[in-house]
Amino acid sequence: EVGKIRIKITSLGLTESRITSDETIQQLFVECRLNKFLAEETPLSLPKPTGGQRIHYNYSTVINVDKEDNHAEREYLKSVLLKPDLPADSLKFTVVSDPPEDEQDLECEDIGFAYVSLKEIFQKQRDIIEQDIDVFDSQDASAVIGKLTVTVEALNALRSVHEECKND
Q1: Is 154 exposed, middle or buried (0-12, 13-18, 19+ CB in 10 A)?
Q2: Looking at residue 17, what DSSP letter applies?
Q3: Where is the RPGRIP1 C-terminal domain (predicted)?
Q4: What pLDDT, in 10s, does the model give residues 151-168?
Q5: Which of 118, 128, 154 minimizes the C-alpha distance to 4?
């Protein structure tokens, strides 16, 4: 659909790292953010996966970017397509550690980040379907701590935004 970006967070697997060995990290949820407009998170936090296992969220959400009601989001998408110097990582997924019930003094902690470039989806003219993307350690951006399987269907929305740019 031209007025929607669909996002699905399917599953998460971790590689051996400080995350897997950290006893205080037990439950994880995932947040997805489009620039500053929208932050959605999986309603469930799931027990941290161990040794090669994956945890399955199967969480889907839709970002509305239609002309009528979502002007700011559309303008942002235009800038993603038109401004070469804008950071390409337009969708940011954050893996967050959810403190256990009995440790309420602990804060939620961002442990890793993964990115999807909307610009790249448009350039390749291909949505991302059930693709594994790298999760980078929040304390060391060069270290990959796991894989997040996501779907991002944005191509039709981006095409329609692009058409609009041409007509402006």
Answers
A1: buried
A2: S
A3: 4-164
A4: 999 999 999 998 888 776
A5: 154
Per-residue pLDDT at 102: 75
Measured in degrees and rounded to the nearest 5, phi and psi for residue 163 equal -55, -45
Q: Is the pTM of this model over 0.85?
A: yes
User: How far is Cα 73 from Cα 79, in angstroms, rounded to an integer?
Assistant: 10
Question: What domains can you pick out in the chain, each with its CATH number?
Answer: 4-167 (2.60.40.150)
Q: Give whole-number Cα distances, 24 to 4, 57, 74, 80, 107, in Å.
A: 38, 21, 40, 38, 11
* The predicted structure's pLDDT at residue 168: 66
Closest-CA residue to 113 (of 150, 80, 86, 85): 150
Beta bridge partners of 110: 96
Measured at the alpha carbon of residue 83, what is the angle toward residues 77 and 85, in degrees to the nearest 5?
120
